[in-house]
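Self-study notes.
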Amino acid sequence: MDWLFLIMAGIFEMMGVAMINKFHRDRNWKAFTLLLIGFGLSFLFLALAMKTLPMGTAYAVWTGIGASGGAVLGMFVYGEPRNLSRIISIAVVLGSAVGLKLIG
């Protein structure tokens, strides 16, 4: 269950980051509310995952999901550049998070 909590934390982190961008563009209460909900749930699920997972591993996987997911959302939703170097960089971040999980 701890890994499911961690994945959920990462997904809500992505939501929070996407809502920062939406709030910056639209300046409305809906985007701001979703931003707060996204980050709030992200921290809640991260805290639940860290009850059993080591802090370093949990934090690395959480930030990896959030950073990679944010970059992918930027490419597909907000029209940010999609080039090989960005894709390789995302793969390195995700590979590092998987490596930490496999090691310990």
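Second protein, same conventions, sequence then structure:
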Amino acid sequence: MHESSEEPSALSTARARRAVSIMFVANGIAFASWAARVPAVRERLGLRDGELGMALLGVAVGAILAFRAAGPLIACVGSRRVTRVSAMLLCAALPLPALAPSFAALVAALLLLGASNGLMDVAMNAQAVEVERRHGRPILASFHGMFSLGGLIGAALGALAADRAVSPAVHLLAVAAFLAVTVLDAGGALTADARPEPAVAAGAGASGGSPSTRLLLLGLIAFCSSVGEGAMANWSAVYLRDELHTTAAVAATGYAVFSLAMLVGRFSGDGLTQRFGAGRLVRAAALLVAGGLGAALVVNVPIALLLGFGCVGAGLSVVVPLVFRAGASAPDVAPGKALSTLATLSYGGFLVGPPLIGLLADRFTLRGGLAVVVALVLVIVALAPVVARGRAAGARASAAPPRAIGAHG
């Protein structure tokens, strides 16, 4: 049964916003902390490239399984409870890969890490949608910005720990302990889920369209966006280093520019959404990616590519938050189910994109492989009205109370 309460005051809404922000930051810190120590864990266990790849697949498998379970679980007990429990599970799972004594134990630890992270991902996004509904204006992108900020903090802490020769086990245990105290304290301020609309509870479509079709189209947008994110994470430095023969420092700058632009874009996205609307913003963002990266690949010099990667980060920064809002606010599908479906498709794009680009690079060139990102964001341009339609439907079903205005986070 969903948790329920009377409509909250502005103060409780502001506290809930702060609590959800903490959850997003904590999630980013946790996963980036693990990612920063992968080389040390690999060295400790003496893993070959293929073995490491198979072990890391455990994270993906665990996340996908959690995505499948998240919707029914949230529908049963509410996103507040699932967020609190999954956050504590993530803290408990974080040190396990560094403590694993063997390859098999590492795979099992990464399955648990991926599952707890995936469950928390869906639940905290459901919380974010509910807090936004009560807040009365767009704030969802800023939550995703907090995740990006957490990722930068976690990566910096991981680099510092590695530089000071702190063992992965000690480092991750310390991070997990700090995060556990933090999320446990914040969890009490999370908000109860709204009661589902009668049409949703009955499984009826309230907007005259097929929920599966809407979610499929929104999921396709998220998939295309995540292919671009995966491409930047895995191929931006390689392109600058191998194709344009830059220094290692310049090559590393490529992903840094992308990440910084995405961080700025996410913290700017809510104001832009309020001013221009979700559909228009998604279309403009996708055109920025297509134009910026497309022109950079044509010019094909380092400074142009750095600017192009910045355009990709700025443009893609708002796409997934707006897709999640559109799916979760639709009146004809439960938010938890919608978010779990969209998270699965989005994560699929992040997994599929990098190897797809690698295959195209082998057959053609890496330049041609990255052109796939341009083609896919043009698909987003064509599908942008779906985001606007989903948001409009959701707005009718869950109009926010005019006085529920929280503090700026």
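Instructor comment on the second fold: The domain at 206-397 is CATH 1.20.1250.20 (Growth Hormone; Chain: A;).
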